Amino acid sequence: MKTEEFHVLTAELEKLTPHQRSILVDRLHKIEHVQAVSMLVESRVQSKPLCPKCGHDHIARWGSASGLQCYRCAGCHATFNALTGTPLARLRHKDKWLEFAQQMAEGASVRNSAKICEVHRNTTFLWRHRFLALPNAQKAQSLTGIAEADETYFLESFKGQKKDMPRKPHKRGSKASKRGLSDEQIPVLICRDRTGSTSDFVLKRADKTHISAALKPLLANDAVLCTDSGQALGAAAREIGITHRPINLANYLGWRRMIEPAHGALSPCAVLFAVLGMGRVQQLTVT
Question: What is the dihedral angle through the alpha carbons of 21, 26, 27, 28, rounded to the nearest 10 degrees?
Fold first, then answer.
C-alpha cells in the first residue's frame, strides 16, 4: 500500500463503530497468523527448491496461490509449492494452524481444540492425524552406551472404526473385561539411552521373540541394557548377545522418590539423612 493510501485508511478508522473495530482486529490477527505460517512453510524451500515429483533442481517461480509461492519444474513441468508432498498439503484454515499447534503442545482433546480454534471437531481430528504423520516416524534408529527398556500396556482401541469390529463399541472408553494382562492389552516397548535418544515399538506379544526382533537392530553391540527383573527382556538381551543389567525395582523407585521432589536441589546432607532414616527428604529440601 502506498503512503498516501495508508494515511487515508488511518483517517477513516475514527469513523468505525466498536463492532467494526472488533471485526477489523480479528481480520488483522488472521492475516498475521497466515503470514507467520506462510513464512515458516516457505523456509523449507527458500535455499534450493527441488521438484517433489522428479527431483529436478531447475525450478522457476510460477506465481502464487493461497498465500504461498508456486514453482514450476523445467524437467517434468509440474507445479508445486512448499506444502506439496507434506502431510499439511491441501489443508485449509492456515490462520488457525499455530493455535491448533499450541493446543497439541498443551495436550488438549480434539473437542476442546475444536472449540478453541472455532472449527468442527472433525477438522481437528483430521489435523491431529496430519500433524502427527511425520513425528510418529521420527524416533531413534540406534541406541548406544547405557540403554533402558521397559514395556507398558494400553487397552486396545477401535476408535474411528465403523464396521468389522470384534466386539461391541464402547462409549467414551471402558475397562478391560479381564483382570491383569490379556489379549485386550496392547504391549508397547519403550527404549532410551543416556543421551535422551528414544524409540518405541508396538508389539504383537511381549515375549522374547518379538522383543528381540525390535531391539536387535536398535542397540549397539557394546550397549548395556538396563531393565526390570522381567524374564522376557532378560531373555531377549541374551538372545541378542548384549550385556544385561536387571535393576532392583524397589530400590530404584525409592531412589527416584528421594530425588524428584527436590527438583535438582537435593543436598548430600539430605541424602544421608534419608539413608539414616532421620526424616523425610521432602521436608529437608529448601525451595
Answer: 90
DSSP string, 49-77: ---TTT----EEEEEEETTEEEEEETTT-
* Ranges of H-type helices in 75-171: 97-105, 110-117, 121-131
Residue 82: strand, helix, or coil: coil
Kindly report the backbone phi and psi dihedral angles of residue 238, in degrees, each rounded to the nearest multiple of 5, phi listed first.
Answer: -65, -35
Domain edges within the chain: 87-138, 143-157+183-247, 250-284
> What does the alpha-carbon distance between residue 187 and residue 181 come to, in Å, rounded to a whole number?
9
List the CATH code of the domain at 143-157+183-247: 3.30.420.10
Strand order of the β-sheet with 59-65 is: 59-65, 68-73, 79-80
Successive 10-residue mean pLDDT values, the chain, 287 residues: 85 89 89 88 84 91 90 94 92 93 93 95 94 88 94 83 76 74 88 92 93 95 91 93 84 74 78 75 43
Whole-model pTM above 0.85? no
Q: Name residue 61's amino acid.
A: R
